[in-house]
Amino acid sequence: MSNILIVYYSLFENTKNLALEIAEQTGGTIRELIPDKHYSFDYNTAAKEIRNEISRGFCPKLITGNEPIDDYQTIFIGTPNWFKTLAPPVMSFLRQHNFTGKTIIPFCTHGGGGFCQIENDISKECIQSTILPGIAVGGTVVSEEVTNWLKTIGYVI
């Protein structure tokens, strides 16, 4: 078993596609975070729900993806950029685990906003971890872009 875990939340498949590319290139185990309540598939309705959850600091219950992380040394954590921060299911995952001594590598998908506060927010939750530079992908995932990033941080198999 690889000691690399790729954890992600994805509403519209963009972050999932990036997570799958990272898993393929690193040989890591992939884990999808699924909250107990699904967001609307209508963008405007979902945006209202999400904005409300973020402003309240709400962390939804996870029905899958929250299994123990003890066997993993390196954890890639993926999220869409939602209102300049993490998706609430990702924050739930971060707050339910101890990342002491682990290497954390953030990744996100976005519609033009890049990382915004995502890397900082992950760092605040994983203060006893090593945080490596992440990747923020806007639009379609390009294998070569992911390969170059993974080479830069030393994680290509």
Automatic annotation (TrEMBL):
<dbReference type="Pfam" id="PF12682">
    <property type="entry name" value="Flavodoxin_4"/>
</dbReference>
<dbReference type="InterPro" id="IPR029039">
    <property type="entry name" value="Flavoprotein-like_sf"/>
</dbReference>
<protein>
    <submittedName>
        <fullName>Flavodoxin</fullName>
    </submittedName>
</protein>
<dbReference type="InterPro" id="IPR008254">
    <property type="entry name" value="Flavodoxin/NO_synth"/>
</dbReference>
<feature type="domain" description="Flavodoxin-like">
    <location>
        <begin position="4"/>
        <end position="152"/>
    </location>
</feature>
<dbReference type="GO" id="GO:0010181">
    <property type="term" value="F:FMN binding"/>
</dbReference>
<dbReference type="GO" id="GO:0016651">
    <property type="term" value="F:oxidoreductase activity, acting on NAD(P)H"/>
</dbReference>
